[in-house]
Amino acid sequence: MGPALCLLSAACFGAMAIFGKLAYDDGVSSGSLLLVRFALAAVLLGVVLLVRPALRRAGSEAAPGRSAVTRRRALATAVGLGAIGYATQAGLFFSALRLMDASLLALVLYTYPVLVTVAAVLLGRDRLTPARGTALVAASAGTLLVLLGAGAVSFHPLGALMAFGAAITYTGYILVADTVVRRLAPVVLSALVMTGAAGTLAVIALSTGGIDLDFGRSGWFWLACIAVVSTVVAMLTFFAGLRRTGPSTAAILSTFEPVVTATLAGLVLGETLTTVQFVGAALVLSSVGALQLRRGTTPTRIRDQDRGHRPAAERAEPATLAS
């Protein structure tokens, strides 16, 4: 289930650029898009938690004897993830989208799987196995082909700088999220992240004179798509997948996102996929398959031995997810 959840999350996130372009075409500003996105997502997740109280505890774990302290720390970290990490990453991403082509923006942003994998290895949270390294190279190469196959793109230095800043911010976001993803239920974690991000953006909006919500129904429709599909569903499936796969594998599987973006751009915006892009998409999908095959064919005894070398935070997976 871990890889499948990561792929579903990547598909939902991949649709966000298309929704964003359509929202921009209907007169929605970047500030309005961000604030409405996170505020609406926070409300929706809050409603889910009210209707389904059991989801507040589903999948969460706590260290014996330190449950209260651990939970308070996890709650504060989750709010900080949204208020600082996600709000910053989203702001940089959508600001860069105003200045540069989406394909080049995605190319710069998708340096983050490499950054996450390298950082996780350096921090001792993960190991760069031959299979994972090969999958990372294949996924990165495929992503390059998908994006570069689009042809000529415009380059904007400030936009590129903000795009790389978004990649660095998202790297830190994933690594910090990995420390709390097993302490809080996915819905709770997602709701707190959305609330934190909405709070930061609301403060920014108030300090800059508010936001413009004077746009039509179609604009609201695309904002709803961004909030529900590319935020709520995407976040829940990402956190659920992250806690099962670890940061490196989750980051590698997330390279499926630009493939989805390119495909939807062809279907919705009339952009044509080239042969090079199809080859790149095949590389990304093959890397995903290789990761899943590796997980499925490794003997249980070897997997258990490998699990024994992982940090305690990663070993604390429910027994039902060990296979």
TrEMBL record:
Keyword Thylakoid: no
Assigned keywords, A-Z: Membrane, Transmembrane, Transmembrane helix
Membrane topology note: Multi-pass membrane protein
Domain EamA as annotated: residue spans: 2-147, 158-288
InterPro entries: AA-Vitamin_Transporters, EamA_dom, EmrE-like
Stretches that traverse the bilayer: 33-55, 75-96, 102-123, 135-153, 159-177, 184-207, 219-242, 249-269, 275-293
Basic and acidic residues compositional bias, start-end: 301-317
Span list, region Disordered: 299-323
Subcellular locations according to the entry: Membrane
One GO CC annotation: membrane
PANTHER family: EAMA DOMAIN-CONTAINING PROTEIN (PTHR32322:SF2), INNER MEMBRANE TRANSPORTER (PTHR32322)
Protein family (similarity comment): Belongs to the EamA transporter family.
Protein name: EamA domain-containing membrane protein RarD
Protein species of origin: Micromonospora krabiensis
